[in-house]
């Protein structure tokens, strides 16, 4: 007999404990399990947002309890939205694993802010006490080291591996930039050399104990993303998109690639979703949000919608990205952590 589900329970907790309830939420027309809000919102709160009457809420709660106990519900069981926004409990099977989660950040197209989202997600995770590393998998166009202002060349670690550089805030960073004489030197390498560099960045670098290793990938579906998907013990992929990107079908290419390589999309982030004035007026500069479609094509929860902020570019150029603070990124990190629950 399952514990009684009540209207004040958080949607995320309900579906995590009783996955059969996802069908009930969807059957009642509530998309909350596929929404970032569901991570914090109560069942009653979700129902209120969707203008449920008290009677409808009562029936929903009754059905949730029925589903949790394997009993019939009043809503016809819709085709189970397998993986659609169900928060994943990704408990590491091996408690001795030094890096608890390896997550790649991917986008189909260049310039949507994938590196920036990777960097700021790392910053917020670190602020929340997580041990974080960033592997800059963009070998030919690295930008992570610059963003964090990490200078100098990596040294040999005590165990004979490569010691990653550390940001001011304590994030471990490894990027091709660190091996170039001049930051502007090009890396003119063919695919196999790029793949080999990525593998070495994972296996030869002494990452130590980490909660999250974020791997920033170059755009597209070429050698580097393929290497990461196939050669690294990847736990999941976060897809970064922007409002106008869905129309170009590049997101679909990413999704298909991840699926073909048997990877798992753990969440999506919509960057450059809106611009907010000091008076809190919002403008959707790149058009209306496609977040709902993103969730439905990827089958993964929306982790956050990031604003456009002109302050970011100058901070990144000055290597001071860690000085940036925004509630949107703190919420993104919180959603990320609750989606990928790990055992320390
Ligand atoms: N939300 C945002 N607000 C303001 N500037 C942003 C935002 N997102 C990204 N940018 C800026 O856009 C530029 C491109 O971002 P970034 O390098 O992160 O994109 P990318 O997708 O990783 O690019 P690439 O395809 O080259 O790897 C950077 O100058 C970055 O600072």
Automatic annotation (TrEMBL):
Belongs to the Mrp/NBP35 ATP-binding proteins family. PANTHER family: IRON-SULFUR PROTEIN NUBPL. ATP binds at residues 108-115. GO terms for molecular function: 4 iron, 4 sulfur cluster binding; ATP binding; ATP hydrolysis activity; ATP-dependent FeS chaperone activity; metal ion binding. The lineage of its organism: Bacteria, Bacillati, Chloroflexota, Ktedonobacteria, Ktedonobacterales. Residues 5-57 form the DUF1858 domain. This is Iron-sulfur cluster carrier protein. NCBIfam families: prismane_assoc. Pfam families: DUF1858, ParA. HAMAP family: Mrp_NBP35. Binds and transfers iron-sulfur (Fe-S) clusters to target apoproteins. Can hydrolyze ATP. Homodimer. Keywords: ATP-binding, Hydrolase, Iron, Iron-sulfur, Metal-binding, Nucleotide-binding. One of its GO terms (biological process) is iron-sulfur cluster assembly. It comes from the Bacteria.
